[in-house]
Structures are given as C-alpha cells and as structure tokens.
Amino acid sequence: MILQMAGWKANVPGAGASISPLGNLVPSPRNLAAFMKRILVTGASGLLGLNLCLKKHQNYTLIGVDRGKLRATPFELVRADLTEPGAIPRLIESVQPDAIIHTAANAILDACEADPQNAYLINAQIPAEIAAACEKHSLQLLHISTDAVFDGTKDGIYSEDDLPNPLGIYAKSKLAGENNVLAVYPAAIVARVVFFGWSLSGTRSLSEFFFNKLSRNEPCNGFTDVIFCPLFVGDLAETLFLMLEKNLGGLYHATGAEALSKYDFGRRIALQFGFDPDLVIPRLVEDSGLKTSRSHNLSLSNHRLSTDLGQEIPGVSTGIQHFHAQALEGYPQKMRSYQQG
Ligand SMILES: NC(=O)c1ccc[n+]([C@@H]2O[C@H](COP(=O)([O-])OP(=O)(O)OC[C@H]3O[C@@H](n4cnc5c(N)ncnc54)[C@H](OP(=O)(O)O)[C@@H]3O)[C@@H](O)[C@H]2O)c1
Question: pTM score, two decimals?
C-alpha cells in the first residue's frame, strides 16, 4: 500500500509504528527505511553525483546510476549507460523511484567541441527522455544545468529572466537540455549550478586544480577576467534536496552568494590551506591558450531560490572552509576508496 505524504510516497509501516501526540504516523526504526524517499541519482561517479550521494544517503534511499567506476559505496548502485536504447524506462521500472536527480552529462568542454553529436545526445536528448518518463510516472525531477548558458557580456548580475546566449557546444547543448526538460515537463526543477569540491579522480574540480598545484609548491594560473559564483558541493547538495522537499518547480540559479574571479578563488584556497598565495599567477583567459571560449562575467543572482527556500544560499568563504575541513578528515581518500579497480 502506498501513502501520499506532502507529495512523497512512502510504504505504510508495519508492526512497531505508532501515532504521535499530534496524530502523525511515526515509523518504528525498523521501518524507517520504508519512509525514506527513493531517489535515483544519475552521474553517481561524477563530482556532483558522488558528493551528493555520500552526503545524503542516510536521509534518503539513494540509488546511484554508475557505468562501472564505483564499488562498495554506502548507497545503492545500479549499472546503466543512459544512452542505451530503453535504459531510462528500465531504470524506472527496476528502481521505482519517487524522484530523479539528473546530474549526468558530458561536462568536459573540449570533449563536447570534439564530438557535438555525443554532447547533444547526453546533454539535451537524454534529459528530454528523462523528463518525459518523469512526467508519465508523476515523479519529481531535478535537472542540473549550468551557469555557462550566458555569454558573460552583461554589465551586471544575471537573473533567471535574462536571455541565455551560450558560447560553445557544451553550453549550447546544456541550454537545449534545460529547454527540453521544461517543455516536456514544466513541473520539473532546472537548477543552473557551478560548484567545487573533492572528486573521485582528484582532478575534476577547479578547487582540486589549485590544491594539487599549490600543495606541490608549483605556480598556477588564475584568471582575473572570469567571474563566477561557486558553491561548495556539500552546500549545493543540501540546497538541491531542500528544493525537492519544498516541491519547487521551474528554473533556478542554485549558485553561491558571492561573485569572485578565478584568480581570487585560487588565492582563497591557498590562504585557507596555508600555501603561498603568490603562487597563483594573475592571467587573462584570452592569453591562456584554452581551446573553448569561456564567458567572462558569470555573476548569477540566486535571489529567486533564496526567496522560495526562505533561506540564504551560502557563500564561497564558508565553502572553502568546509573543503579544507574535508581534507583534514581524510574525505578525499575515503572517496577514492569507492573507486573500482
Ligand atoms: N563541475 C562544475 O563546476 C559544473 C558547472 C556547471 C554545471 N555543471 C553541471 O553539473 C552536472 C554534474 O557535473 P559534474 O562536474 O559532476 O560532472 P562529471 O564529474 O564530469 O560527471 C559526469 C557524470 O555523468 C556520467 N555520465 C556521462 N555520460 C553518461 C552516460 N551515457 N550514461 C550514464 N552516465 C553518464 C559520468 O559517468 P562516468 O564517470 O562513467 O563517465 C559521470 O558520473 C552536469 O550536468 C554539469 O553540466 C557542472
């Protein structure tokens, strides 16, 4: 039997359940798992997906979709390549989720430029298929998009009402993805994000780039002319689950509360870890020789989100402190222990 609780499905608890003085049904500890929302998380081996699953697996029944990189995780795994014909309906049939958080993507800019067809398949077509399946089964969907949908030429802060103008294949395919999702399933949440943290490979995030260089006492470039609003991935995970809990829908900027240059971000990482901040060399992105063009001003307002959540989204300073604290706790090593082979 299925109970509807504020839009969340839960199995009715069996023996041991009781009624609280306020008349609420209280599950016995034995049956608590039956009350936890089942959430399918795509991209479970990715920077966002893995951090998200590790942070919240005790609060929800999380089932991560993995292509074979992970082992012995403290959350459930299901093996699937989302681009295989029929993969999405099969996943929904076997997992029976209440919600999907779709983080999987081709998020490597140069790889997208090299293979636009694949970029559009994974970043635009698969989100449309997931949205159609969620609409059909009335599942909540939280689709992850990017701050890079903007060309960065605005003299000011971007809101959700500003017109996107993506520069490269990655950003274009991600914009197509968010448009597809909202066209097929307007009740879905589309969250534009930019974040940092520890990853399975140890090299995926900008924060790891600075950490790896600075900890070896090597100089590294920091762009002074690229402004962004990064959110620590742990704070992003909390924010995303709150968005689901509050049953939000539509387009949101789930970005950090503070805009800063990538150069300043590098210096802040250095200062937090006690490395030499002067190892971060101020550079212009034009002079960097990067193949794919980058937007200069990605200052995004999270006002709509903080208003609808009724709370502020954290800034970068506390995020860098948490990133440092995780290093002291051995979190990067623990994370890598879940790597296959
Ligand atoms: N990193 C950022 O700062 C940033 C900024 C803005 C937006 N975003 C968005 O945030 C989301 C997560 O990014 P991320 O940095 O966590 O990405 P990531 O570390 O590159 O991870 C991508 C994930 O997608 C999975 N994946 C790719 N193709 C797949 C397929 N065909 N079938 C199943 N899984 C597949 C990957 O699996 P494998 O490990 O098996 O390849 C991996 O788990 C993406 O939507 C990205 O566009 C990221």
Answer: 0.91
Residue type, 270: A
Q: How far is the CA of 80 from the centre of ligand 1 (A)?
A: 14
**Does the beta carbon of 46 lie inside 6 Å of ligand 1?**
yes
The closest-lying atom of ligand 1 relative to the alpha carbon of residue 67 is 40
Is the CB–ligand 1 distance for residue 195 below 6 Å?
A: yes
Query: What does the DSSP assignment read for 121-186?
Result: IIIIIHHHHHHHHHHHHT-EEEEEEEGGGS-S--SS-B-TTSPP---SHHHHHHHHHHHHHHHH-T
Bridge partners (DSSP) listed for residue 40: 63, 100
Where are any strands of DSSP class E within the chain?
2-5, 8-11, 18-19, 25-26, 38-42, 61-66, 76-79, 99-102, 140-146, 189-193, 195-196, 220-223, 227-228, 231-232, 250-254, 260-261, 280-283
Q: How confident is the model at residue 19 (pLDDT cuts 50, 70, 90)?
A: low
User: Measured in angstroms, how far is the CA atom of residue 122 from the centroid of ligand 1?
Assistant: 10
Domains by residue range for the chain, with CATH: 36-336 (3.40.50.720)
Residue to mutate (ligand 1; options 40, 84, 103; most atoms within 8 A of CB): 103
